[in-house]
């Protein structure tokens, strides 16, 4: 299958970002339990995806979305504080 040069560069960016994400998850698991580290990693990843969608793809941001993003972030912080 033929991919354009631009598609290959975005694929490389994706692979590098995923690799860094797993690397930092591994570092986090040195200090906190696996379940806590994974919950924080997933929650912050979801938050980052929403922020990227709003920033780059002009997705709507409203009060409800902000409220629930704050719930995710506060949950991640809370998990870290009790671990």
Short description:
The chain is mainly alpha-helical.
Overview of this protein structure:
There is one protein chain. The chain is mainly α. It is built from three helices and no strands. The chain has helices spanning 5-28, 34-57, 63-82. Helix 2 packs antiparallel against helix 3. The radius of gyration is 16 Å and the shape is flat. It starts with a helix and ends with a helix. The mean pLDDT is 88.
Task: Write the topology of this structure.
Blueprint: H1 5-28, H2 34-57, H3 63-82
List the main descriptive attributes of the protein structure presented here:
83 residues; flat; 3 helices; mainly alpha
- Please mark out the parts with pLDDT under 50 across 5 or more consecutive residues, or reply none: none
Largest sheet: none
Instruction: State the end-to-end distance.
Output: 47 Å
Report the portion of residues in β strands.
under 5%
The secondary structure category is mainly alpha
């Amino acid at each position: 299958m033929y991919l354009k040069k631009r598609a290959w560069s975005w694929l490389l960016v994706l692979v590098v970002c995923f690799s860094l994400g797993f690397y930092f998850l591994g570092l986090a698991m040195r200090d906190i339990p696996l379940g806590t580290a994974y919950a924080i990693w997933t929650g912050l990843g979801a938050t980052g995806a929403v922020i990227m969608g709003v920033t780059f793809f002009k997705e709507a941001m409203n009060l409800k979305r902000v409220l629930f993003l704050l719930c995710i972030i506060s949950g991640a912080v809370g998990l870290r504080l009790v671990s």
